[in-house]
Amino acid sequence: METRDAEPCDRPGGTVGRLAVTVERLRDEVREAHAAADGRALVEVAKGILIERLGCSPATAARQLAELAAQSGVSALELAVDIINQAARDRVAEIAADFVRRTHDAGPEPGDEQPALRLRSAESAAMAAGDTQAVAESLLRHALVPLGAAAVAVWTVDRDGSLALSGHAGFGSGEAERWRHVPPGVTTVARQALVSRGTVHLESVTDVPSIGSLRTPGGARTTLCVGTGGRIHGVLEICWPEPLAPHPPAIARQLEALAELCAHTLENPARSATRAADGPVADPAVSDLVGVADAIYDPALVLVPHLNAEGRLADFRIQHVNAHFQDPAGRPRTALDKALLLETYPMAVGGGAFYDHLERVFATGEPIHVRRMSMTTHVDQVPLQIVADVSISRLAGGLLVIWRIEDETVRLARLLQHAQRLGRIGGFEENLETGEITWSSQLFALYGRTPAQGPSSLHALAAQAHPDDSVAIGRFLRTLLHHRRPATVAFRLHRADGVARHIRIVAEPVSGSSERLTAVRGAYQDVSSQHWTEVALAATRDRLAHTEQEAIERNRLTLQLQHAIMPPARDPLQVPGLQVAVRYRPAETESLVGGDWYDAVVLPSGQILLCVGDVAGHGIDAATGMVVLRNALRGLAMTGAGPAQLLSWLNSVAYHLTDFVTATAVCALYDPGTRRMRWARAGHLPPVVVNAGGAAALPLTHGALLGAGLELEVEEAETELRPGDTLLMYTDGLIERRDTAWHESLDHLLANAQVPVETLGRLLDNLLTYGKSDTDDDTCLIGVRITPKEAE
Where is each PAC domain found (predicted)? Predict the structure, then answer.
């Protein structure tokens, strides 16, 4: 007999391969059976509509449906959906009427079903499904896959705010198992929709954790709240495989309709809230909530939702108030029972934060605790502001509201405690008849004692204070206890822990009905910080007075030195063919001793050295720097060098031989025989020449600040002075203003210099008098007038 080898199991045509093909075929058959069942359900509904409207038998209705479908060129299922839409006129029918094809894909796929057919199929499957898992699979298969979605998840909101995965489709079993429970503190895409109580669309999920985010990285997510009557039962999360812009309105309305289909599977019928039309129908479980409210010592309300005709939350009804609740308007508890909240407290909750908290807690189930919530209510048409600590929790189908109105006495006591703590004050009362002593907690802290050690009597003050304060304490006790007058005393307290504190006591006697002294009450205050602050201030005042005296003395000596070197006025220099006058005006404030200087001297060569300079800054450093530069320039001029060379050498002196002194200067050498003057400047204002034709400043030459750098390039200029000309050299204190450019101030100087005067000294005095300088700076001014031949 011929034998054959067994067929390997791992070949494509082997046993495993045949089983896989069989399993896939059976799955397809199951899906087709589900789809056929959903379609048959829609056809049966349409047949029922025809039977009701045409008054025919079921067989006639089926035949009529087939004939109408053949005449319209559509399938019987599509015609059945149209008949249902026309009869229902519900949200699905509205969506189908104005549906617009989505445009984010290349175009509709061939054979794509109408939205009405997809939504009705999903609705039929959801209503027939026994659990949320079947609803999720039906939504994905009938409605979401044609829109391009890859997966769907339906979350249930637990009482503690956590999320539980109730149904899913498109995700692997391992992924679903990892996301079976999401704690309240985890921020996910579904949590964002729950917090916002609306629809959330993320164009791309990158850093927000969510189910399936690793499978479709960067894909879009749409989450919608699922609930009825203002209460959120869960969240519908739709996963798109790629980044996606927000949906057009038609697609968004379809997704909202799908969320409504999920609501009936998540809502427990036993938890149904009140219905609107015929008054409240209380949840049986609310009776347990009433028992909880009665067991609470604080004032409590039990609220149940009040829905309008459309099934939406319109208000809350006061189902019960416990015995401790007191109405701010003084109404009895019977007047509040079964009343609507917005009608009872319109100003307290209407449109305010409190009502928003009620809606949020009822929708999400997460409790809220708010301290010191301010609300307004009306008492006899007068607005009354109340402050209350509010706690809101959702239990069963209602809300438990604990409403604790702040007591004024408690609030004032708390304010007093804070005031004592901030002011480091402790109160006391000593009963002189019974010997009972009462201290506040702050006073124990001031003394460094514990309540177990007990308070201390006023008679023990001297033993606890510094010995030098015993006389003041005795006088305080005599005034208080013997003369019965209020008294105060400050002393140094030596505590048991070795800490010394400065304490002030303010006390008053308390007399009884028989004018007998019965008690003493008062307050201790720790003034240690104030005492040491006063000590520090006194020491600071002493140091400031000493420093001020030193500054005055130093400035007086500096001013004397400056006047000795640069007197405010001096006799004119006696030179044939010239009239020379100088003026020096120190700063108006003695503390602003400056470094302005001038010099006018006849050199051995017969030339006349004329110079004016200004050392930067004020005080002793500026004055000593001025002396160094003035004497250095006079000595350098003996070499016979020109003005440019003199200023270059003077720059080396300022740079090397002084402590960071900078200065400006203008230097001129005048030859009486030729009446020619060579001059140069180092950052200084140019000289001014006044003659019969007016007054004009000499052209600016190049020359930087003295002491600013090691090398200094100075440009030298030459000008001829005629008989009758007057040369003016000055420092910036003559013309400088804070709000005016230097050339404008110079124009004012030139205008004043043209005013006719009798003598050169009078001209300089006028320039000092009518100058517009406002910097309170020193001023040096040299005037040189060329004498005509007949005057020589």
Answer: 487-539
- Residue 167 pLDDT: 84
The rounded distance, in Å, linking the Cα atoms of 646 and 678 is 12
Q: What share of the chain is helix, strand, coil (3-state, %, to 5)?
A: 40, 25, 35
Answer for the pair 685, 746: CB distance below 8 angstroms, yes or no: yes
Residue ranges of the chain whose pLDDT lies below 50: 1-12, 92-113, 269-282, 790-792
H helices within 610-759, ranges in order?
A: 620-637, 643-656, 742-753
141 φ, ψ (degrees, to nearest 5) = -70, -45
* pLDDT at residue 111, rounded to an integer: 38
DSSP line for 263-323: HHHHS-GGG----STT-----TTHHHHHHHHHT-SS-EEEEEEEE-TTS-EEEEEEEEE-T
The overall average pLDDT reported for the chain is 77
Of the candidates 298, 429, 432, the one whose C-alpha atom is nearest the C-alpha of residue 369 is 298
**Cα→Cα distances 26→10, 21, 33, 337, 727, Å:** 21, 9, 10, 61, 120
740-768 core/surface letters (b: 16 or more CB in 10 A; e: else): beeeebbebbbebbeeeeeebbebbbebb
Residue 279: the pLDDT is: 44
> Which pLDDT value is given to residue 108?
41
* CA pair distance 263, 227, nearest whole angstrom: 5
SS3 letters across 397-408: CEEEEEEEECCH
* Cβ 768 vs Cβ 583: under 8 Å: yes
pTM given for the model: 0.39
The end-to-end CA distance of the chain, in Å, is: 163
